Q: What sequence folds into this?
């Protein structure tokens, strides 16, 4: 039975499935790369007991403080206020080895989406910020100001898969300064082509631009690729990698990195004699991604786009 935890402002997605596939035992070592409000970590701590070790990363100071308080009864944990791109060095620094599980639950916690001051949502007005880590120097407003029309087009296309990326980049550059989420959303609503407005099951026309800006501000895709490679390197034999992603760009990266890690050769197909010396390190546990049931989506609508992949170290 999934734990109902909305009293913490964020229901952990696919928690019963994560528990099943993690195969954790008492005394195990787990790394939660996206602590959030600590829902999945709370379950991991129960599974590994007082002799186990939890290492958790969170780059948002508000969530970090919340989770520390939530998990304060447990001494066997290291909670690190850092980007998970520092995974390998932080594990090494602490002399930790024998990791049985590395877990990623990507994206935003509900509390971040719901806080208008963070600037993640176009449904409420707030500053165009979008930083997970408030210490980092670049906000979404700065991205719109500083990037050329051409580079903005590229970001909307590559990180948002936005069909009208060129058009939106042009109107944004002509209407600067844009300082708030509603200002940006209304501008796009105004210029969105009619076909987009007419679509039956249409998404808000600013959805993809907001996704692209968030990915750019937090460099999410580069960081994810790097961290997944590190995750594979720190697992012990039989240890598992579990990743929950929420959009196709993330899921593609997870799928490709896991797939490459299962191959003995990753040379391009035109190379006839292998020169990469790559060796398979992982096996795939879930051939197709696991998605939430209709019941879970009804209870926790934010889980609707979740896809979970699992692989095991050889
Ligand atoms: C979907 S939430 C995780 C929710 C969590 N599993 C729970 O049960 O409460 C994702 C969290 O990961 C954090 N996050 C996203 N990217 C990160 C990164 N590169 N490094 C560290 N934390 C990150 C976000 O700030 C957010 O709090």
A:
């Amino acid at each position: 039975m999934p734990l109902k935890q909305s009293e913490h402002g964020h229901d952990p997605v696919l928690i019963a499935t994560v528990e099943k596939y993690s195969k954790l035992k008492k005394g195990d070592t787990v790394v939660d790369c996206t602590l959030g409000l600590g829902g999945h970590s709370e379950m991991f701590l129960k599974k590994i007991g007082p002799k186990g070790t939890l290492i958790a990363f969170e780059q948002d100071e508000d969530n970090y403080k919340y989770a520390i308080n939530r998990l304060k009864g447990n001494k066997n944990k290291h909670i690190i206020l850092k980007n998970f791109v520092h995974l390998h060095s932080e594990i090494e620094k602490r002399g930790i080895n024998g990791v049985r599980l590395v877990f990623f639950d990507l994206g935003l916690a509900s509390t971040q989406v719901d806080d208008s001051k963070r600037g993640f949502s176009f449904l409420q007005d707030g500053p165009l910020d979008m930083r997970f880590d408030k210490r980092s120097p670049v906000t979404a407003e700065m991205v719109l100001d500083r990037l050329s029309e051409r580079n903005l087009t590229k970001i909307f296309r590559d990180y948002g898969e936005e069909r009208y990326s060129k058009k939106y980049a042009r109107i944004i550059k002509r209407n600067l300064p844009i300082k708030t989420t509603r200002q940006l959303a209304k501008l796009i609503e105004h210029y969105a082509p009619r076909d987009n407005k007419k679509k039956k099951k249409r998404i808000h026309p600013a959805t993809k631009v907001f996704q692209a800006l968030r990915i750019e501000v937090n460099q999410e895709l580069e960081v994810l690729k790097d961290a997944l490679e590190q995750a594979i390197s720190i697992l012990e034999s039989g240890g598992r990698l579990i990743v929950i992603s929420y959009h196709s760009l993330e899921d593609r990266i997870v799928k490709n990195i896991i797939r490459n890690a299962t191959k003995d050769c990753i040379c391009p197909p035109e190379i006839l004699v292998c020169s990469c010396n790559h060796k398979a390190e992982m096996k795939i546990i879930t051939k197709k991604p696991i998605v939430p049931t209709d019941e879970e989506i009804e209870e926790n609508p934010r889980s609707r786009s979740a896809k979970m992949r699992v692989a095991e170290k050889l």
